[in-house]
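Hi R.,

As promised on Friday, here is the backbone we talked about, encoded as structure tokens. Could you run it through your design pipeline when you get a chance and send me back a sequence?
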């Protein structure tokens, strides 16, 4: 398991590609087409996906035959290897790389995009500058990140419940709600500071469906992300108390079963000046 390191370019704990798919990848795949539509990219030969994770956005981009090559980079070798196994399209190329030091020459890509990654980069503004650097003049730089404080119901349910039981969870909740690029205007400020023009910020909303509480909870005891990181720090008694308290929040007075929660992200796009 790869633990988060605040001195590195990623604070996201990674351990299992399948586990990430159960937690977030399935919802990234649902968000990706909405995000691509928002970004407005439809032409150009080469596109870069920064923080590609297990490959959901890159695979969605591959649905456009106009793109001759789609490069995906991620800080996690575990996720890169998982992404490589997901498809045989020769246009898809994945490699391990640091978002703050992209291994590409200036103006390599027609467009550069990033989905649900920037909040986990301690120097997020540096990553945005790198995205601009490797994008050709006239190309689009676009990204999206969950509205952790005001728009991510499944996460608020977890952290609000945990914070009632544990002061340390309250501190983790505060960090989750104040990560870079998760608040209104964060992306616009960073895009403008990076020298991008024609900057547009908006919100995008999808639904997150769970078949049962077990479906919701299983990734929380996995190896990926801040929820599992926190649950893994608890002893068995505190973990069971948290699970039962979150179960009560999930069922909400109805029998256990399917639930659908709104999930909203902030998204921004901008153009590299000619």
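Update: got your reply. Pasting your designed sequence below so it's all in one thread:
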């Amino acid at each position: 398991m790869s633990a988060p390191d605040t001195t590195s370019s990623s604070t996201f704990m990674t351990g299992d590609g399948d586990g990430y798919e159960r937690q977030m990848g399935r919802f990234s795949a649902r968000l990706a087409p909405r995000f691509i539509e928002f970004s407005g990219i439809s032409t150009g030969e080469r596109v870069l996906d920064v923080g590609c994770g297990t490959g959901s956005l890159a695979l969605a981009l591959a649905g456009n035959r106009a793109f001759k090559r789609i490069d995906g980079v991620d800080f996690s070798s575990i996720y890169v290897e998982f992404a490589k196994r997901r498809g045989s399209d020769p246009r898809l190329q994945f490699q391990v790389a640091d978002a703050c030091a992209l291994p590409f020459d200036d103006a390599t890509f027609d467009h550069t995009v990033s989905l649900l990654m920037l909040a986990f980069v301690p120097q997020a503004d540096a990553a945005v500058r790198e995205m601009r650097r490797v994008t050709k003049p006239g190309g689009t730089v676009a990204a999206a990140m969950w509205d952790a404080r005001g728009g991510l119901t499944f996460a608020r349910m977890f952290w609000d419940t945990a914070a009632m039981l544990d002061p340390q969870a309250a501190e983790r909740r505060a960090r989750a709600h104040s990560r870079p690029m998760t608040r209104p205007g964060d992306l616009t400020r960073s895009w403008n500071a990076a020298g991008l023009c024609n900057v547009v910020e908006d919100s995008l909303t999808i639904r997150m469906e769970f078949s049962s509480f077990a479906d919701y909870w299983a990734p929380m005891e996995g190896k990926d992300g801040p929820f599992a990181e926190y649950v893994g720090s608890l002893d068995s008694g505190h973990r069971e108390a948290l699970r039962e308290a979150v179960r009560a929040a999930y069922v909400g007075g109805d029998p256990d079963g399917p639930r659908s929660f709104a999930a909203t992200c902030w998204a921004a796009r901008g153009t590299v000046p000619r």
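One thing I noticed while checking it: The domain at 17-271 is CATH 3.40.50.150 (Rossmann fold).

Thanks again,
M.
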